[in-house]
Amino acid sequence: MKNNIYSPKDFFAVARDEAEVNNLLNTDIYKFMMLDFVLANPEWKNIQVKRKMTIRSKGIKTAFVIPESALIEQLEATKNISWVSEADLSYLRWMTRPDGNRLFQEETLDFLKHFRLSEYQVGIDENGNYELEFIGPWATSILWEIYGLKIINSLYLYHYIRKEKLTNVEFNQIINETLHRLYSDIEIFKQTPEATFSEFWTRRSASTDYQRMVYEILSWTLPEQCLGTSNVMIAREFWLANPKGTNAHELRMITTALYDEKDDIVNAMYDVDKKWAKHFPGLSVLLPDTYGTSFYFENCPEEVFLHHNGCRFDSKDPKIAIPEYVDWVLKRWWNPQTKLWLPSDGLSAKDVVEIHSLHKNSLGKLTFWVGTHLTNNTKWTFPREEKYGPFWSFSVVVKPSEIQRSDGTWVSCVKLSDNPTKAIWEPQRVEVFKEIFWNNGMNKKEVYV
Fold this sequence. Notes:
alpha/beta; globular; 12% strand; 12 strands; 4-stranded parallel beta sheet
């Protein structure tokens, strides 16, 4: 008799003795875009970079749940992927920019033919969490971020279930509740059919299998509203020409770490966006919150403003950040409706509808990136009393922590954001950046995703 209920094997690769990441395309498109950008600037390619994982959520103890051997096994399986197949390269080759030209340089595709990920290290901190560190040249360490996060998230949920010896019936309770939430969100989206979004949170999906299921459901139930996914592999599986994405904070974190003087640090931050606009015309979406959105707008060079196509709102509440951006654009005598607007941080379906209703008449190109609340909406679904900390998605990031300068010295990277809770890495270096960038517009709040 066929088993008609779900089991962990249906959703977790590790339950089938498989790798969670067995294809380098199982990542967000912006990782390949940033790789292409780094390779186009050869002075950056071989900068030695350390990336560290940090868990921001309270109560999570990954080392109490995930066996170290299981974590290393998954990391090794991913590290040993030594190429991108010709079929996958062909898919990447025919992605296009808005001007119709190819998205990626042929040199980048050649680089990927024999690509090998850099080294990693595993430790355990005093809080009972794994410390992951990825070390190597920028060009070969850049892809580790998403793979490391995918592995830690999927292993945590799977081994929590295994440690508690949940039955398949209990496991179905988790899956059914999570899917119920997804379908409830779909109904919320349907109430505002003009609100569009993309599925954008590969890094914190419950698993690749679950993310694939979620995207298939969204694409069938909301074909006019769900515009795509950031996941390159899933986009290819669903015959999508261009996955969704722009760039990430690491571009500014690494390049500003090369300098000590205020003017050099500020100029390095803006130089990234100048170069990005030239390298990816039509795809210059600003990410101004690396060191504070308000500072970024107040001091932004005319060249950056004139060549940008839109703005992504990350760590600042969109209800505050959007009006701030509108004012900034209007002061430059520009029409805000010509720009692309991308709220993206920790959004739920209700957030999307609410923000859309507030700004739909003033913004011409408003769309959203929604992630964890669609692809890992597992909070409070565990059917028993929790023994090993929370069973759910948690806030975890992998960010550049240090870079090595040409004189051999290692220097801390910094990320401040608009939320002081998110400021990370070496305290003295963080204070230097606060003195430069933090003037106003900061809002301290708890981090959930």
